[in-house]
Amino acid sequence: MVKYQLTPTISGDLRPVSQWATSPTGSSGFFLLEGPTAVPVAVEEEKTDCRSQRAKTMITHEQNPEGGVYVPTCTGTNDVLYDEIQCHKPTNYCWCVKPDSGEPIAGTSVQYTTPDCATPAKPVGEIK
User: Fold this and answer.
1) Each residue's pLDDT tens digit, 43-84
2) The pLDDT value given to residue 119
3) Cβ proximity of 33 and 16 under 8 Å
4) 50-111 is classed in which CATH architecture?
5) How many angstroms separate the CA atoms of 70 and 60, rounded?
6) DSSP3 helix / strand / coil % (the chain, rounded to 5)
7) Which residue intervals define the domain Thyroglobulin type-1 in the entry (predicted)?
8) Residue 31: half-sphere exposure toward Cβ, Cα within 13 Å
9) Distance between CA atoms of 116 and 121, rounded to whole angstroms?
10) The dihedral sign for the CA sequence 76, 80, 81, 86
């Protein structure tokens, strides 16, 4: 979904200001802008579903396959949910996540084994 936001091009007291911009002819630079105007700027809302994040991460991984990039695994209709257990293969660490957001669940990260996501993590101790 594309949202629009208004980018003000003048200061609050209506004096002209300069702003980095691209002209209709394609040249970029600082331009003197006058008058009470606002320019609509398309802002792409970042998608946080698993499929979108996986696609974004795969681009990075393909550019640097030896970089150790974590690539999420997905499930559900259209792969929008995160698998409950996520793993970083190069380090052999796995952890539990919230399937709707991919947010890691504290205290579930383990190495060389599979975490038990059904049992809530026990608090390690009080932080002082």
Assistant:
1) 566 788 999 999 999 999 899 888 888 999 999 889 999 999
2) 79
3) yes
4) Irregular (4.10)
5) 10
6) 15, 35, 55
7) 47-117
8) 12
9) 9
10) positive
Mean local confidence (pLDDT), 9-25: 49
Q: In this structure, what token pair is assigned to residue 15?
A: 């004096």
Q: Which of 28-42, 78-92, 98-112 has the lowest mean pLDDT?
A: 28-42
Q: Residue 99: which of 78, 77, 117, 83 has the closest Cα?
A: 83
pLDDT of the residue at 121: 61
Q: Which two tokens stand for residue 27?
A: 């040249």
Instruction: Report the pLDDT averaged over residues 96-120.
Output: 93
Measured CA to CA, the distance from residue 85 to residue 113 in angstroms comes to 11
Domain ranges of the chain: 2-44, 50-111
pLDDT digits (tens, 9 = 90+) for 86-103: 999 899 999 999 999 999
Distance of CA 45 to the CA centre of its chain: 10
Q: For residues 75-113, b (16+ Cβ closer than 10 Å) or e, as one string?
A: eeeebbbbbbbbbeeeeebbbbbebeebeeeeebebeee
